[in-house]
Amino acid sequence: MIPMSDDNRQQRHKKSMQKQKEAVDASIAAADREQGVVVLLTGNGKGKTSSGFGMVMRALGYQQQVGVVQFIKGVQLSGEELLLRERFPEVAFYQMGTGFTWDTQDRESDRQAAETTWAFAQTLLADPSVDLVLLDELTYMIAYNYLDEDAVLAAIAQRPQTQSVIVTGRGGGRKLQELADTVSEVKELKHAFNNGIKARKGVDV
């Protein structure tokens, strides 16, 4: 077999990249609608909330109006909460504040807290001045029947046209996946916690 010269290798690489660029450019040209999107970040792996807050930071970089609603979390401080409250006080930020359901062990109390939290979320979903809404761990509220699934999906579907919504949490159900424009599943291959390593500030919380 005759070895390929550097010049031939470069030509093949250039041809391959040109073909790839043409495909990417065609896809960009075909995406001509301007509207907000619904992004569902699900799966059993670590990183769903982190990804959601990454988009929050991205939106803030463009001086967009952002709202964050956290279901389940709120007992233990997180780095995201500290950052938003101290550096971005203009962000509408609300936490259910009850912690995990296995901590409270009180279904009715959790259900009432979920309803109160959802009422705040609805104000954001109805506000055309809000560009991005993060509904962190909302899927659990649907799975546990703390919130009415159809009412939740309707509020998201009927939001202002230019508003984007990020929903995080395991599962979420078929209807939510069908409503979402983008669905990403985070798969766990390994997790430090399972090997006895404590959660780290800046990484896990």
Task: Give short descriptive properties of this protein.
alpha/beta, Rossmann fold, six-stranded parallel sheet, 6 strands, 45% helix, globular
Textual characterization of the structure:
This protein has helices at residues 6-30, 48-61, 79-87, 101-104, 107-125, 138-143, 149-157, 173-179; strands at residues 38-42, 66-70, 92-95, 132-136, 164-168, 182-185. The chain has 205 residues and is of the alpha/beta class. It is 45% helix and 14% strand. The protein is globular, with a radius of gyration of 21 Å. The protein has one domain: Rossmann fold (3-Layer(aba) Sandwich).
- The CATH architecture can be given as 3-Layer(aba) Sandwich
Name of the CATH first level: Alpha Beta
Silhouette: globular
CATH fold group: Rossmann fold
Number of helices: 8
- Total of domains: 1
Largest sheet: 6 strands, parallel
The strand count comes to: 6
| Share of helical residues | 40-55%
Radius of gyration from CA coordinates: 21 Å
Range of strand content: 5-15%
SS content category? alpha/beta
Query: What would you give as the CATH superfamily?
Result: P-loop containing nucleotide triphosphate hydrolases
Distance between the termini: 55 Å
What is the H/E order?
Answer: HEHEHEHHEHHEHE
> Runs with pLDDT <50, length 5+?
none
Task: State the gist of this model.
This protein is of the alpha/beta class. It has a single domain (37-195), classed as P-loop containing nucleotide triphosphate hydrolases (Rossmann fold).
